[in-house]
C-alpha cells in the first residue's frame, strides 16, 4: 500500500525526465551536426568532398590532412598560427585582468582627486566597441611600429571597461570592515590587495579569464589589419586567408582540419576552467 | 599595557559635528565601556582611537604619546568588529596569524602564540577550518583570538556580541571579562546594551548625541546619575520622571529639605526616582499618588504601572509575592528622601 504512491511518482517523474532528455538530445544533435560535418570533411580527401553526396562518416585521411595543416598549412603552418593566437588570447586575457583589477582596486579603495571622473571615463569607453575606434587605433599602433608584432596584437585591445566595472562591483560588496581589519593587522594597501582581495576574487578572475580568452581568441578584424606577414597571422583570420582568391581550388579537407584545430583551445579552456568555476561556486566564500 | 587619554576630541563629517568634545582618561588595564543609544557616536569615537577615522580636533594619546597622525598598525591596538571581519578565504589559524606574519614574527613563535590563544579560547580543534564552517560564537572567538595573539597594548571592541543569540551573549560576556582580567590589557568596549555595560565595565561612559554625559563605575552611575538622560538610559525599567508644576502638588508630597532645593532652583524641576526605590505604602518621606493601570508579574518581581493625576507614568517594582491592589484603584507610593533625584531644566542634576 505504502509503496503505491511512491512508485507512481517515480514513474511520472521518469516520463517527464525522458521527455526533457529527448528534447535536449534533439537540440544537441541539431547544434552538433555542422561541427560533425566539418570533422568528417577534415578526414576525407578533396575529391570525396566535392563529389555529391556529401560524406557523413569519417574517412581515412585524418592523419594526412591534420599533419599537412599543422606543418605546412596553406599560407603559414597552422601550428604557427595556433601559437600566435594563443599568445594573443593569453596576452589579452591576462593583461585585461591585471589592468582592470588594479584600476578597480584604485577606484574603490583610494580617495584621490578626480576619482569619479576617471571611473566615468572608463565607463564611457564601454560604449565604444573596437570596430568604432579601429582606424585611430591602427594609426597609433602603426606609428609605434607595432605592425606584425605580438605587442601590436595585444596592447591595443587590453584596456577593458567591462572587466574594471565587474571588479569594481565585486569590491564594493566586500565589507569595509575587512579592509579595516587588515589595516589594524598592519597590512599596507598592496599587501591587502595581494593577501585578501586577490584570493577573494579567485572565482571572478576565473570567469573573466574564460570570457576574455575566448574574446581574444576570436578576434578577427584587428589581427587582419595589424598583421600582413603570414607568419604573424592568427588562426581565426588565418582560416579566411586560406580561401583561394580567383580560380584556385580550395583545399577543403585542410581548411576543415584547421577549423577543428581552431576550436579546440577555447574548448579546453572552458572545460578546464569550468571545474575551477564550480569549485569556486560550491565553496563560495561569502 | 597602556593608558589612553582622549582630550577634547571632536569629529565632523563634512559640516555636521557628531562628537562635540569628549574627554576620557583611561588607566592602565582598565575596562571601559562606552554605552549610549544608536547614532550617538560611540563607534565614531572608538574608530578615532583605532585610527580608522581622523580626529577633527583634540588629541588622542596612547601611553602618553599623541597618536592622531599614526596609522592603526602603529598604535599597538587590536580591534574586534561587530561582524567579526574574518578573512573568509583563510583558515582560523591563518586568520589569527595574519597580523604576526605581517609583523615578520618567526614561524615557530607564530605557531606557539596562536596555539596558546586557541587553547585559551577553546578553538584548538578548529584551526584548519574556514570561518564559514564555524558557528557565530566560534567566529566571535576567532575574532578575539586574532586580537589576543598580537599582544596589543589596547583592545578595542565595537559591539562584538550583538550578532549572537541571547544565551551565547551572556556566556561570551563572561568570557570576555575573564579574559580581559587575566591579560590585564586596557580595553575600550562599545555597546548599546546597558546590561553588557553594567556587567563588563570597570568604568562606563554614557554617551548621548556626541557628548559623554557621565563617566564612572557602573554602580555609581546607576545610583547617582548626573543627568536625566543617564537616569533614563541606565536601569531597566528606567527611572520615573515627574514634572513638578508647583511646590504643593496634590499627587506629590516632598519632605522640606527637598522642597528647599526645588525652591532655590531656577525654572521647572523634574523629580526622578527609580522603580525599585518606590513601594506601595506611605512609609517613606516622599509620597506620590496615582491610579493603578496594570500589573506585570515577572516571577521574582512584579512591575506595577500607575498614572498620576497629571497623566505621567510611574513604574513601581515590587517583590513577586506582594499583595497588590486592584487595577483602577487609587494608590499611595513612597520612597526614602535620599533616593529622590532632582533635575533642572537643562537635564542636569540639582544637588
Ligand atoms: N562616514 C560618515 N559620514 C557621515 N556621517 C557619519 C559617518 N559615520 C557616522 N556618521 C554619523 O555619525 C553619527 C554617529 O555614528 P556612529 O556610527 O558613531 O553611531 P553609534 O553610536 O555607533 O551607533 P550604533 O549603535 O547604531 O552603531 C551618526 O549620526 C551617523 O549618521
Ligand atoms: Mg556603532
TrEMBL record, chain B:
Keywords: ATP-binding, Cell inner membrane, Cell membrane, Membrane, Nucleotide-binding, Sugar transport, Translocase, Transport. The keyword Nucleus does not apply. The keyword Cell membrane applies. It is a peripheral membrane protein. GO terms for biological process: carbohydrate transport; glycerol-3-phosphate transmembrane transport; glycerophosphodiester transmembrane transport. Residues 4-234 form the ABC transporter domain. It holds the Pfam family TOBE_2. One of its GO terms (cellular component) is ATP-binding cassette (ABC) transporter complex, substrate-binding subunit-containing. It is found in: Cell inner membrane. It comes from the Bacteria. InterPro entries: AAA+_ATPase (IPR003593), ABC_transporter-like_ATP-bd (IPR003439), ABC_transporter-like_CS (IPR017871), ABC_transpr_MalK-like (IPR015855), ABC_transpr_MalK/UgpC-like (IPR047641), Mo/tungstate-bd_C_term_dom (IPR008995), NA-bd_OB-fold (IPR012340), P-loop_NTPase (IPR027417). One of its GO terms (molecular function) is ATP binding. Its main location: membrane. PROSITE patterns: ABC_TRANSPORTER_1, ABC_TRANSPORTER_2. Belongs to the ABC transporter superfamily. This is sn-glycerol-3-phosphate ABC transporter ATP-binding protein UgpC. The gene is ugpC.
